[in-house]
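Now for a chain:

_____
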Amino acid sequence: MALPTVFDGLSVAEAATDDARDLNIQLGALRIHNRKVFAIWGANFSGYVVAGAVFWHEDEGYHFDASYFEQSLPTAGR
């Protein structure tokens, strides 16, 4: 993942295979197998996320509020 901590606008799109290769993503010993590359950009930044899928939720909450996805995330001991 390569993203700033503050976004001015936000757009997300799955990167085409050639575009993903052009990003020259360094994953160390990991390979991109079964993962997708999502290009992320806004008014003053561009970045990417390597993931199996992407989900988002927009609200008026604060950054320290419980996650909207909290119930869908696996938790140890559950």
Summary: Residues 11-72 form one domain. Helices lie at 17-22. The chain has a mean pLDDT of 76.
